[in-house]
């Protein structure tokens, strides 16, 4: 392999960590007092340790500790002089503030994807302005965090942790996330969302909040969701449908009054729009609700269909991460491991997007994750190798004539 192009003096793990500015880590560390009461195992060391575990998909503290010992000399490049003991990692997972990892993820996202953050004013196209909100639950084998769902035959219920996520459709990354017990209602994330005028949010009907939806309307934020049976709706006018829309499965386009005048505080009255669609794939009718009167019915349908992209995000994270075994049996440790999983996913997505920007070979997310896991401590230039893997292989695997020529040099 040509040293000039594919060789690197730093292993791939170090190159990945270079995407996290040390100034950012230091700033978040000071804000959250993450190093308070810690003499040796600092927040940066803890972050590196947990990212090592996340990339290698370690299933136990022993496996993590052994892996760190085997690569101890390589960790010196990062300034980590001593390999932490299992007890040290366990104690830090139990006591270090989760806020350090939470803030670091959000700051890192804004650092690399500022143009697509909820408070960015640079977004122009519909996809750039589209946000999707949903939640996913990770089951736990112990009832550390209150679970949700059916109680088992033994009268107990599995614990679970729920990630409430606001995803940007363009980046396919969480721009805002909070972690709670699985039993918490999905709407807990809604008051914490900060969207700029002109933003678009697609959400499931579980997130319907009349008061917040009216506030968004007043701020010129478009929302798209589905009609629920319990909604108080009054028909105002029927919009005429074009023949082209009818051919595309649009059944009706109504202007309605949403909310109940008798309970103005809980469900304030506002004018909205209902679009009924016939889905030829499922052979079912879908009734969409929106506050936008400008977009065509087909555009509203496309915006709502984009909502399924967040399910692909959840699937991607769960398939390419080790979330069956946790390195601690307390809420703090579980939360830290999940935040580091999200940071790992973000770093992998940064690499993938940079390759796309260069017009290089397209890697699937699962293949890229597998490559990083297997070659985390290989001394190759990550971006150059991923851009031209076939060329790198040709340089490494020389032809038979070249091999025979080299063998002759050592023949007597």
Automatic annotation (TrEMBL):
Q: Name one GO biological process term.
A: DNA transposition
- Extract the GO molecular function terms from the UniProt entry: DNA binding; transposase activity
- Which residue range or ranges hold the DUF4372 domain? 9-81
Kindly give the SUPFAM superfamilies that the UniProt entry links to this protein. Answer: Ribonuclease H-like
Q: Note the superkingdom of the native organism.
A: Bacteria
Stretches assigned to the Transposase IS4-like domain: 128-341
Family annotation (InterPro entries): DUF4372, RNaseH-like_sf, Transpos_IS4, Transposase_11
Q: What keywords does the record list, in alphabetical order?
A: DNA recombination, DNA-binding, Transposition
To which protein family does this belong? Answer: Belongs to the transposase 11 family.
This protein is called: Transposase IS4 family protein
Query: Which organism does this sequence originate in?
Result: Chitinophaga pinensis (strain ATCC 43595 / DSM 2588 / LMG 13176 / NBRC 15968 / NCIMB 11800 / UQM 2034)
Q: What is the lineage of its organism?
A: Bacteria, Pseudomonadati, Bacteroidota, Chitinophagia, Chitinophagales
């Amino acid at each position: 392999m040509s040293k000039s192009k594919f060789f690197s003096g730093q292993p791939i793990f170090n190159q990945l960590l270079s995407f996290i500015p040390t100034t950012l880590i230091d700033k978040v560390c000071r804000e959250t007092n993450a190093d308070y009461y810690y003499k040796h195992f600092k927040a940066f060391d803890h972050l590196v340790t947990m990212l090592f575990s996340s990339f290698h998909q370690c299933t136990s503290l022993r496996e993590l500790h052994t892996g760190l010992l085997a690569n101890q000399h390589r960790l010196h490049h990062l300034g980590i002089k001593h390999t932490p003991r299992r007890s040290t990692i366990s104690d830090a997972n139990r006591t270090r503030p989760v806020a350090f990892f939470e803030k670091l993820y959000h700051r890192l996202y804004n650092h690399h994807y500022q143009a697509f953050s909820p408070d960015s004013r640079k977004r122009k196209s519909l996809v750039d302005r589209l946000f999707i909100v949903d939640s996913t639950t990770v089951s736990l084998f112990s009832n550390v965090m209150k679970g949700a769902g059916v109680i088992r035959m033994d009268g107990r219920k599995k614990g679970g942790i729920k990630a409430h996520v606001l995803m940007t459709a363009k980046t396919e990354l969480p721009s805002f996330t909070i972690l709670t017990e699985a039993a918490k209602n999905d709407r807990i994330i809604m008051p914490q969302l900060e969207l700029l005028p002109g933003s678009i949010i697609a959400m499931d009907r579980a997130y319907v909040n009349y008061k917040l939806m009216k506030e968004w309307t007043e701020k010129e934020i478009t929302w798209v969701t589905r009609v629920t049976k319990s909604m108080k709706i009054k028909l105002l006018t029927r919009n005429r449908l074009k023949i082209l829309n009818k051919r595309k499965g649009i059944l009706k386009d109504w202007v309605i009054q949403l909310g109940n005048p008798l309970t103005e505080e809980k469900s304030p009255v506002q004018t909205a729009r209902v679009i009924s669609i016939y889905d030829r794939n499922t052979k079912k009718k879908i009734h969409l609700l929106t506050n936008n009167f400008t977009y065509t019915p087909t555009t509203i349908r496309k915006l709502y269909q984009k909502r399924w992209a967040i399910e692909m995000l959840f699937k991607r994270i769960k398939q390419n991460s080790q979330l069956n075994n946790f390195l601690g049996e307390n809420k703090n440790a579980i939360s830290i491991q999940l935040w580091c999983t999200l940071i790992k996913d973000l770093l992998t997505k940064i690499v993938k997007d940079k390759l796309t920007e260069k017009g290089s070979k397209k890697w699937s997310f699962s293949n890229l994750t597998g490559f990083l896991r297997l070659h985390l401590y290989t001394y190759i230039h990550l971006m150059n190798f991923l851009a031209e893997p076939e060329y790198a292989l040709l340089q490494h695997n020389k032809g038979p004539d070249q091999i025979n020529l080299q063998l002759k040099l050592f023949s007597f």
